[in-house]
Amino acid sequence: MKAKIFLKIVWKWTKRIFIFLFFFQLFCIILFKWVDPPITVTQLVSWISGDGLKRDYVGWKKISYNAKLAVIAEEDQLFPDHSGFDWKSIKKAMEYNKKKPNRTRGGSTISQQVAKNVFLWQGKSFIRKGLETYFTFMIELIWGKKRILEVYLNVIEMGKGIYGIEKASQIYFKKPASALTRMEAATIASSLRNPKIFTVVPLSNSVAVRRQWVIRQMNNLEEDPDIQEIIKEQVAEKKK
Q1: pLDDT tens digits, residue range 78-101?
Q2: What is the CA radius of gyration of the chain?
Q3: How many Cβ atoms sit within 10 Å of the Cβ of residue 15?
Q4: For the chain, which terminal residue's Cβ has fewer other Cβ atoms within 10 angstroms, N or C?
Q5: CATH number corresponding to 35-237
Q6: Quick one: pLDDT at residue 234?
Q7: What are the φ/ψ torsions at residue 53 (nearest 5 degrees)?
Q8: Are 110 and 72 in contact (CB under 8 A)?
Q9: How far apart are CA 34 and CA 44, in angstroms?
Q10: SS3 sequence, the chain?
């Protein structure tokens, strides 16, 4: 009898907790459409582990056109066209990881990376992946592409303990993110695969080579109408 009463109490509080968590995460998703996330789990871990936490959030209009184009060229060229998931890249990554289990190849879109970095933690468990899918779907639905790209450029790691394009620009090039040239933006974007290993300062060989590829991709993608629909407000900067 006591066991049944105990189980009822546990079930009652479990339901309350799940209901609270559901509405809390929904509130955060809606809030972060306009308000920058105060801190992410990844940033907190970076600070606790001793890597430091250097960041400066900036608004959409204070981010160089070149930076927006560069990260799309490097990280997710189908960003304007997909609904959060690039299924072909995910399939290729899964096949690659099966053939070479000691190596990993990612297939994450910019949207997935934002969902993971803002709402979740780093890892590869099925639970985290499932939550990543949910949050990716929700931010695509509620935020839209411009906000997703803006948050990405503000929260993503761009060096050891360096988060966001503004802080990266200030540290690497001594200028605000709004003033980044094509070459500078491509250099930062080229480090995003693993910014702790592929460094901007000192310039790693991998980044030096990769940025030439990124610049070519930027040139190829620049006139795409879907990409311009997202980043067109600062077209005047593109010739710098």
Answers
A1: 999 998 887 666 655 545 444 444
A2: 20
A3: 10
A4: N
A5: 1.10.3810.10
A6: 47
A7: -145, 100
A8: yes
A9: 22
A10: CHHHHHHHHHHHHHHHHHHHHHHHHHHHHHHCCCCCCCCCHHHHHHHHHCCCCEECCCCHHHCCHHHHHHHHHHHCCCCCCCCCCCHHHHHHHHHHHHHCCCCCCCCCCHHHHHHHHHHCCCCCCHHHHHHHHHHHHHHHHHCCHHHHHHHHHHHCECCCCEECHHHHHHHHHCCCHHHCCHHHHHHHHHCCCCCCCCCCCCCCHHHHHHHHHHHHHHHHHCCCHHHHHHHHHHHHHCCC
Q: What is the model's pLDDT at position 117? A: 93
**Taking residues 96-109, what's their average pLDDT?**
53
Nearest to 81 by CA among 41, 60, 110: 110
Q: Which class for 82: exposed (0-12), middle (13-18), buried (19 or more C-beta within 10 A)?
A: middle
Rounded to 10 degrees, what is the CA torsion of 153, 56, 162, 62? 40
Here the tokens at position 10 are 């546990």
Across-strand partners of 163? 55, 157
Pick 97 or 164 by higher pLDDT. Answer: 164
Domain borders along the chain are 35-237
Q: Could you tell me the pLDDT band of residue 183, with boundaries at 50, 70 and 90?
A: very high
